[in-house]
Amino acid sequence: MSTPQSREQWQQMADGLAINGQAFINGEYCAAQSGETFDCISPIDGRLLAQVASCDLADANLAVANARAVFEAGDWSKMAPVKRKQVMIRFADLLEAHKDELALLETLDMGKPIGDALSVDLAGAARAIRWSGEAVDKIYDEIAPTAHDEIGMITREAVGVVAAIVPWNFPLLMACWKLGPALATGNSVVLKPSEKSPLTAIRIAALAIEAGLPKGVLNVLPGFGHTVGKALGLHMDVDTLVFTGSTKIAKQLMIYAGESNMKRVWLEAGGKSPHIVFNDAPDLKQVAKAAASAIAYNQGEVCTAGSRLLVEASIKDELIELIVKEMQQWQPGHPLDPNTNCGAVVDKQQLDNVLHYIRSGLDEGACLVCGGQQVLADSGGVYVQPTIFSDVSNQMTIAREEIFGPVLSVITFDGMDEAIAIGNDTIYGLAAGVWTADISKAHKTARALRSGMVWINHYDGGDMTAPFGGYKQSGNGRDKSLHAFEKYTEIKATWIAL
Ligand code: NAD
Ligand code: MN
C-alpha cells in the first residue's frame, strides 16, 4: 500500500488498524502478569485506542531474567559484529517498510503531525538503527604502548542488561537512539516506553524478531514510572540504565542506582535553551522562521526547544513582529492532515501544565504578544495556540522552568557579555542558538555557553553523526555518534607478560 496522501486516507488506515497493547517478553507478546491494563487515549479526539498492559515488578523480574539468560548464552552478545550488523540493517529496513503504520501509531498516540512522524521520527529511528549497525564492525580496540616483553590490551565489552526508559515526545526516535548502540554492541535490552505513548515501542518488538534478533534480547514493558520504571531503576541485575525524560525523574534514577547495585546511569534530561540573536544577524526573516519553529515544532514538546529568545534590544520590535507573522503558519490543526505542522498536545494533563505556565506569565507581568488559548476543544482533543511573551525577565517562572509546550519567552540584552550571562543563568545546559554575522562573536559566544549543543546561524542542526546531550542538569553522556557507544560498553585492561 502506498503512503496515504490526505487526512481521509490516513483516517481510513487508522480505522482499519489493529493496535496491540501487550508487553513483549522473551520473544512473545503477553499480558502483564497481574492482568492489569490502562487506557491509551488519543489526544487528537479523545478516542480510546487500546488497553495497554500495565507492567510492574513481576514483569520487570521476568524480562530482566530472560535478558540476562540470553546475554549469558551468547546468542547475540557473542555473535560476530558483522553478523549483528546484518540483523540491525534488516531491522532498519523493516522499520522503513512499516513506516506508514508506525508513523500513524505515533500520531494517534501522542498527537504530532503525521508529516513529521514520517519525515522526522520514522526516518530518524531507522537511521539510528542502521547507522549503529553499520558502525559496529568498524570499531577497533587498543593496544597500550608497552615495553617489549609485555602486551597491554584495552578492549570493550558489552555491559550486559540495559534498561532503557524513554519519554513521550519522540517515542520511537528516543527509543532507537538507545536501541541502536545498545543492541549493536551486543547487550540485551528491556525497553520501557512512556505510559503516554507506548504503541510504537510495542509494535517494533515483533519487527526486531523478524529481522533476526534472538528471543529475549529486546523486551518491551509498557507501564507507569512508579511501578515498572521504578522496578527497573532498583533492579539488582540491570547493569546500565539509560534514560530520556525530565530532570526530576533523572535525579530519582541516580538515587535508585545508589540504593541498589550502582548500575551505570546515563541521562538525557530537560532544557531551557537560549536562542540568542545579535543585532548584526544576517537575515532577520530567517531568524524569525527559525525562532517560530524552535518553539512551535512538535507543539513545543522538544527538550531542545528554543524557549528563551534572547534578543539584542535594538532589534526587538522588528524581530517580534516578524515572528508573530511566522506563527500564523503554526496554528494547530488535525494531526492526520498532511498539511498540519502543529498538532495536539500529548494529553489533558500536559495541556493544563501549559495553560498554568501561560497564567503565571501573565501574573508575573510578562506581556502576551500572541496566542495563549486552548483551541479546537469541540474536537474532543487537546490543542493550544503557539504563544509569545515579551518583556520577560530571566527570573520569571516562564523563563526558568521547562514548559514543554509552545510558549516563547522573549528577553532583551545589550552586548555579548550580557547575552552569555543570561544564556548561562539556568540549571540546564542542553542546547543554544547564536545568530550573528561576526565570526569571532559567534565563536566566543559558542565557547562561553555551558551547553552540549550550539547552533550558529540556524537552530536544531545535527544528525546521527553528532553527539546529542547536555551539561549541568540536562544530563550526562551522549546519544548518537560513536560517543553513544561508550555508554553501552565496559573497558577491560588485560596485561600479558611475555
Ligand atoms: P518523565 O521524566 O516524566 O518520564 C520519562 C520516563 O520516565 C517515562 O517513561 C516515565 O514513565 C518514566 N518514569 C517516571 N517516573 C519514574 C520513576 N520513578 N522511575 C522510573 N521511571 C520513571 O518525562 P516525560 O514527561 O515523559 O518527558 C518530558 C521530559 O523529557 C522533558 O523534561 C524533556 O526535556 C525531556 N526530554 C529530554 C530529551 C533529551 O535528550 N535531553 C529528549 C526528549 C525529552
Ligand atoms: Mn498516548
Describe the structure.
The longest helix has 22 residues, at 114-135. The strands form 7 sheets. This protein has a 7-stranded mixed β-sheet with strand order 14-17-18-13-12-20-21, with helices on both faces. A 5-stranded parallel β-sheet has the order 9-8-7-10-11, sandwiched between helices. It contains 15 helices and 23 strands. Helices cover 38% and strands 20% of the residues. It is of the alpha/beta class and 498 residues long. The chain binds nicotinamide-adenine-dinucleotide and manganese (II) ion.
How would you summarize this macromolecular structure in one to three sentences?
By secondary structure, the protein is of the alpha/beta class. It is built from 15 helices and 23 strands. It folds into two domains: 22-269, Aldehyde Dehydrogenase, Chain A, domain 1, CATH 3.40.605; 274-463, Aldehyde Dehydrogenase, Chain A, domain 2, CATH 3.40.309.10.
Keywords:
498 residues, alpha/beta, Aldehyde Dehydrogenase, Chain A, domain 1, Aldehyde Dehydrogenase, Chain A, domain 2, 2 domains, 7-stranded mixed sheet, 15 helices, 38% helix, globular, binds nicotinamide-adenine-dinucleotide, binds manganese (II) ion
Quickly give the structural class.
alpha/beta
CATH class of the largest domain: Alpha Beta
Q: Give the overall shape, derived from the CA principal axes.
A: globular
Q: Rg to the nearest angstrom?
A: 23 Å
Ligand identities:
nicotinamide-adenine-dinucleotide, manganese (II) ion
CATH architecture of the largest domain: 3-Layer(aba) Sandwich
Secondary structure tally, helices: 15
**Overall mean confidence score, pLDDT:** 98
Please bin the fraction of helical residues: 25-40%
